[in-house]
Amino acid sequence: MPKVTVRYWAAAKAAAGIAEEPFDAATLAEALAEVRERHPGELARVLLRCSFLVDGDPVGTRGHETVRLAEGGTVEVLPPFAGG
Asked: Which Pfam families did the record assign (predicted)?
């Protein structure tokens, strides 16, 4: 199972109470399920509005279960930003 880092930004960071944390997950869907398990409540609600980058590449509309994670990879959790 790959070890990855999940980084939270803006409202996701506030809801998680931390900037980043490690997870063991083979797909983005597995990583997000673990995030929801560790942080039920507000972060789970924020995730519904987020977009994601995996190793710098936008996930877009791909199914999260199809997005494979690599050992040492990074998942960026990006809530909608004001301004832009």
From this structure: ThiS
